[in-house]
UniProtKB/TrEMBL annotation:
Transmembrane among keywords: yes
Transmembrane feature ranges: 12-29, 35-55, 67-88
UniProt entry keywords in alphabetical sequence: Membrane, Transmembrane, Transmembrane helix
InterPro entries in the record: CCB3/YggT
One GO cellular component, as annotated: membrane
Pfam families documented for this protein: CCB3_YggT
Organism domain of life: Bacteria
Name assigned to this protein: YggT family protein
Keyword Acetylation: no
Entry's family note: Belongs to the YggT family.
Length: 92
């Protein structure tokens, strides 16, 4: 049961990490005329912005580069490690 939960959380964190990466890549692409793609980009941004925005408010940009997606991904990786360290020993 706990292993199933860990796998589910791991997959959710992986998906969210991927969405943050896609959102960061799409921020470099002008999507004004692409209709459907701009809608998809807006949906991905709406999903990612609440979490990445937490770090964006804390971390300043350096030379016009926003490091908040990178820090958000690091936080997700740390969360994955912490949950695994806490829950996995209870299985064995």
């Amino acid at each position: 049961m706990i292993i199933t939960f860990l796998r589910l959380v791991d997959e959710a964190i992986s998906l969210y990490t991927f969405l943050i990466l896609v959102n960061s890549a799409l921020s470099w692409v002008p999507l004004g005329r692409l209709g459907m793609m701009s809608g998809i980009a807006a949906a991905i941004n709406a999903i990612c912005e609440p979490f990445v925005g937490l770090f964006r408010r804390i971390i300043p940009t350096f030379g016009g580069i926003d490091f908040s997606p990178f820090v958000a991904i690091l936080a997700l990786m740390a969360l994955r490690r912490i949950l695994t360290a806490i829950l996995l020993p209870t299985v064995y």
